[in-house]
Amino acid sequence: MNEIKKILIKESDIKRKVKEVADTVTADYAGEKLLAVCVLRGASIFFADLVREINLDLELDFISASSYGSGTSSSGEVKMIKDLSEPIAGKNVLIVEDIVDTGITLSYLKKIFATRNPKSLRICTLLDKPSRRKTELVPEYRCFEIPNEFVVGYGLDYNERFRALKDVCVINEDAVK
Ligand code: PRP
To answer: What whole-number percentage of the chain has pLDDT above 90?
Structure first.
């Protein structure tokens, strides 16, 4: 049985949309500095492509947060594995994620970051699965809204596999178990 069931979003469509969202970010923060924060590991590939299309005075930082659990389900708890390297007080902060699913991870990160007095705080996600939301979280920027299917590729994993695929794909869960 094939492990990849289908391509959901192909490389060329991702590229076009990433440029479009980057242009919107550039316009929205015109004349301002921006700190782009990559949430490792899933957002790494999207982040690298996005920041190179944003035409602003940019700083980059990286955090690692993980929801507990493996496979395709999240348990609802978040742990901070690596915090930011620099303070964010007074800065425009854009948190860059690969996917907002339940919204638990980003609600947690937003709450922590908000206590550090940034000038502004927004979220940019590659994928948004609003049907799975368990919090009020709405990302300010998103590339694609997707249905409730388990996706991999372009940074997203299934038990750490498939992150380096160029397309966003749906896996055949029976085949990868
Ligand atoms: C994934 C993803 C988000 C989070 C989204 O991270 O990168 O951070 O889950 O889910 P939520 O909206 O339900 O909280 P994961 O914990 O799998 O770590 P990874 O980025 O290293 O793959």
So the answer is: 88
